[in-house]
């Protein structure tokens, strides 16, 4: 595995980008940074290459992948048509963390990318390295997050290597990603655009542009994926069980003390505002409540740090579900397998 160091200036032509693009053209998989999380890319038109993504991740192959493009022409080449509403959204939010599900163009991408669906998910990432790689390769890239299936998504090249070293051709290191949670997936193949997965572009921002937006019932839509609870409960999960605590810091601290009295090593996930109120085996602050973007950016790294700390149990604060907080709580709930403890008030 080669690692390309921290390149940020896409104006310069780097031999490493050419090398990565060459790997992609011969059907290998390469991890690269986007503005959300690191992706594991392969030529979307090459079934054998796409199969290597599923193999490296250990991902169920009936979950479709997002196709990453660098130009509108490339987007047009993979979809059957771009309805006016979708075009408006592309003009407003691309490049950026918005994935649009549209009717696919027959034969443009491998059936393994779309899991046999009549639609394809497309996005143009807002990261100079991602765009440079796509342009240099000349390929539309199928790319899920570059983590082992079930693990927190990677927001640094080190996270990618921790999960996939030896399983991929290489990783381009663009430093820590800016947004930290995945793109918003919006289904534009129906009459009313529907959010299938909350993400980097908020519902409020979408509504400012297109008025009405629906939300899919339940959580992340995974067509064909096993419906068993065990399946969805392994998403983004740290090794130790995580509990979301909806209540005061004092209440959370009492839970910590009860668990430690049972001999358990306990971790706490908090923010700058409350970090001083906890005594536990490890206390991780992942940002400030005044700007939930900071929490979203550091969430996955924090979840991985609890693994390194070898705790038996993690208690996390809950966050307001507004703006980016919706995506944040969506991921936190999945990491917790839906476990929430509510403080009782009399
Ligand atoms: O930010 C992101 O979106 C990252 C970076 C790497 O771009 N990618 C990412 O990919 O999160 P992945 O594979 O982990 O998530 C893809 C999501 C899944 O929820 C999948 O079910 C949905 O997109 N999806 C893909 N194609 C779809 C389709 N045709 N119809 C409905 N949902 C689809
Ligand atoms: Mg993922």
UniProtKB/TrEMBL annotation:
Outline the extent of the YrdC-like domain: 14-201
Question: Which Pfam family, giving just one, matches this sequence?
Answer: Sua5_yciO_yrdC
Q: Name one GO molecular function term.
A: L-threonylcarbamoyladenylate synthase
User: Matching SUPFAM superfamilies, A to Z?
Assistant: YrdC/RibB
Q: Which reaction does it catalyse?
A: L-threonine + hydrogencarbonate + ATP = L-threonylcarbamoyladenylate + diphosphate + H2O
**UniProt key word Transport:** no
Localized where? Cytoplasm
Question: What family is it from?
Answer: Belongs to the SUA5 family.
- What's this protein's function? Required for the formation of a threonylcarbamoyl group on adenosine at position 37 (t(6)A37) in tRNAs that read codons beginning with adenine.
Protein name from the UniProt record: Threonylcarbamoyl-AMP synthase
Q: Which organism is it from?
A: Geobacillus icigianus
Organismal lineage:
Bacteria, Bacillati, Bacillota, Bacilli, Bacillales
